[in-house]
Specification:
about 240 residues; alpha/beta; Rossmann fold; 2 domains; eight-stranded mixed β-sheet; 9 helices; 8 strands; about 20% strand
Length: about 240
């Protein structure tokens, strides 16, 4: 594991990363999902795709990469893009899980791999809608401190900067971005995924013209149990 510092838009970031197969001539970059880290991606794919240089990154605010700013998805794209330039990455393949799928798409790699990607807005359960409505009312009444009682436990553990970032990115509709992606895409999904539904995966596949869609028996982290097959499909399906 290593770390590099960079400055993007006058903001300093220390990015934790790890490289596997450092002498390989082509790259595959792995971007984790919200609340996750590079270790989950490395533990799944680190022993496969031996002809590629693996680049595992903790995006700012996750894993061992700290963050002191309110960020947007476009900020994450800029940061990761500048970081990959520091590593002289050719962006042959970028694989993104969940939120990392949105960042990966905007990085416009030669080959895009989406693993249960976020980016399609889905109907929220009634109890979630109710919490959001009450939170908005309290904010308007100047009682913003009470809105914390409506946050889920994982959200409550976020710093204020990451909570602001979460609010910036959570409800983005990436349909247009998926439609505009012109390169090769491999889309993998868990059939029992409740975080990003199977129907969302099929919609993304319909939006990206040059895409292949494969689903597996599993949840949002289906790839942990199917990494070997996914890796073989990546090797056989890239341009």
């Amino acid at each position: 594991m290593a770390s590099k510092s960079l400055i993007v838009d006058n903001k300093k970031f220390d990015i934790s990363y790890e490289i596997v197969n450092p002498t390989a001539s082509k790259d595959i970059v792995f971007l984790h999902g919200w609340g996750s880290n590079k270790e989950i991606m490395k533990n799944s794919f680190g022993k496969y795709l031996n002809n590629f240089r693996h680049i595992y990154i903790d995006m700012p605010g996750f894993g061992k990469s700290s963050n002191s700013y309110d960020l947007t998805t476009n900020d994450y794209v800029k940061i990761v893009d500048e970081f990959l330039k520091l590593l002289n990455s050719s962006k042959d393949i970028i694989a993104g899980h969940s939120y990392g799928g949105k960042v990966s798409t905007l990085l416009n790699p030669k080959n895009l791999v989406l693993l249960s990607s976020a980016g399609i807005l889905e109907e929220k359960p009634f109890d979630v809608k109710l919490k959001i409505a009450f939170a908005k009312i309290f904010n308007k009444l100047g009682l913003s401190s009470l809105t914390k009682s409506f946050r889920s436990s994982d959200v409550n553990q976020m710093s204020e900067q990451m909570y602001s970032t979460f609010k910036n990115v959570v409800n983005e509709d990436f349909s247009t971005h998926f439609s505009n992606f012109q390169n090769n895409a491999l889309i993998f999904w868990g059939e029992k995924d409740t975080a990003t539904s199977l129907s969302s995966g099929k919609k993304i596949a319909s939006l990206i013209e040059k895409s292949t869609f494969i689903s597996y028996d599993g949840d949002h982290y289906f790839f942990a149990h199917n990494a070997k097959d996914i890796s073989e499909r990546i090797e056989n399906g890239i341009l």
